[in-house]
Amino acid sequence: MTNLKHSVGKANKAKSTGQTQDEQVYCHIFDAILEQRLPPATKLSEEALADIFDVSRTIIRRALLRLSLEQVVVIRPNRGAVVAAPTVEEAQQIFKAREVLELAITELAVENASAEQIAQCREMVSKENTAFDQGDYGSGLRLSGEFHIKLAEMANNAPLLAFQRSLVSQTSLLIAQYETRGQSNCSLDEHSALLDALEAQNKEQALQLMKEHLQHIRAKLNLTEDGVSQDLHVVFSDIIKKRSAN
């Protein structure tokens, strides 16, 4: 079983910043989706999650509702929640929306990105590179998604940022469900090149690089494969062990 020591990064930060319990649970599950530890169609038992996170089922419901609004969780009446499993048609729609959104974000990021934000993104790319080099695919994928969320922060547009969070996590589901395994990761150099274009305020080049980057992600997908479910107690085993040790 892959080491899950990085699985609670956002939620641990949430605790230190005084976020609510349902926000912390949301962060845990959101990270697990980005890291592909919660594949499409995984059943999200309220009872199991409440036990894992040592919170009430009301808190779990609030976190799952928030994730459902971002379209990465589906809440089925009288049957509970599951991680979304996009169809081929839905996958095509998600990528079209992602293309339109990313280009808008890139254009605004060229205009608004600060030197500090670009430096933070370069550090993120370095960590992403290290994760993939060490074979930690889940953490690498999460950092890749967070890179694109950081770009949306650079755009300085709150609605675009909210939409980007949803599409990034939905794309992670598509990769988990449909990606052809064994292909090399090409995003690292592409991320660095995109940051170079942002730093140079070269809008035309940045837009072209983003188009190519999204095309490469799309080209890795084989829209015929299904995801597999995982036991929630295995996915969040690090959280359970940490609580038991306290």
TrEMBL record:
Superkingdom, natural source: Bacteria
PROSITE patterns according to UniProt: HTH_GNTR
Select a single GO molecular function from the record's annotations and give it.
Answer: DNA binding
State the Pfam families in the record.
FCD (PF07729), GntR (PF00392)
Q: Which SUPFAM superfamilies match?
A: GntR ligand-binding domain-like (SSF48008), Winged helix' DNA-binding domain (SSF46785)
Q: Where is the HTH gntR-type domain?
A: 19-86
Q: Coiled-coil stretches, from where to where?
A: 188-220
Q: Name the InterPro entries for this protein.
A: GntR_C, TF_FadR/GntR_C, Tscrpt_reg_HTH_GntR, WH-like_DNA-bd_sf, WH_DNA-bd_sf
Keywords, comma-separated and alphabetical:
Coiled coil, DNA-binding, Transcription, Transcription regulation
What is the annotated signal peptide range for this record? none
Concerning PANTHER family, the annotation shows:
HTH-TYPE TRANSCRIPTIONAL REPRESSOR NANR, TRANSCRIPTIONAL REGULATOR, GNTR FAMILY
Name recorded for this polypeptide? GntR family transcriptional regulator
Q: Which organism is it from?
A: Vibrio gelatinilyticus
